[in-house]
Design goal:
alpha+beta; Fructose-1,6-Bisphosphatase, Chain A, domain 1; globular
Amino acid sequence: MTQAQLERARRLLCSLQNSIRDTLVAARRRNAVKFADVAAVAAADTIYAVDKISEEAICAWFEAHWPAAWPVEVVMEGLEGGEPRTFPRGIPVARTRWKCLLDPIDGTRSFMYDKRSAWSLAALAPQRGTQTDLTDIVVAAMTELPTHKQWRADQFSVVRGGGRAGVVATAHDVRSGTCIRLRFRPSQARDFRHGFASLARYFPDGKAFIAQFEEELWRTLHGSTDAAPLVFDDQYICTGGQLAEVLVGHDRLVGDIRPMVYAKLRPNAALSCHPYDICTALIAREAGVIVEAPDGAELHAPLDITTPVSWIAYANPALAKLARPVIRQLIAAHL
């Protein structure tokens, strides 16, 4: 695919997410549905009423706007039976050129109660069937889904290989519809003192274990103190939101080791990070953020909706160099 075609694909993913954002904003203003009603329970997650709104908007958008010359397989939670869908409608998966992995609303739980913004995530990779991997992604976009009182919604998108200068970052005014360029920069700090850094422990399962793991991490890196806390914690229940916080310089480290912890403590636990949650890692990497497996290896996972994924993101190489060896030691000792 040419660079011009990839750029067109990036704009298409942004347009899709703009449609999702605007549909949800309008529904909330009309109070048209109770976002928190449970619509279904799927293999990877619970589907709420707010999810159904976005899924309907996605299918309508693909039918109206996706180029017929680029047949695509869409993989996302919420489709009937969890099965993929193809566009143009009915084309066999084997004849598609692209695989598009979507998380229409990442951070549903906070968003549906109007507590904190969610993010719509999308990534595009050349179709390689079940072998299609996170490392194959060439285009990615993530768009903020604002709370009712929030007037600004940010958006980041990228084509692989463009570096930080190639990351398109915009701020959209949901009141007026105007859009401006957004300046951003990941933290350049060389340690974690007096900054935000945290591992995901949203739910009761594994919470104490992960907290102890993290406490040992900070103690090893920076020692213990009875004075003011050296590292601040922010449990943003949204993988895309966590990556955004690193992108804009708010957080120095975020990560999710729940799949590894659950494998040790409770093998059947379902609430975890999946490939669609971390599918926009390409954006962070192009901006200079280090996103990798907890042991420092390249992050691999099939583009599906069920595979559990553990990952760590460091705002810059210096922070990765500092913390990675300690995280490896703790994994070897405890996991």
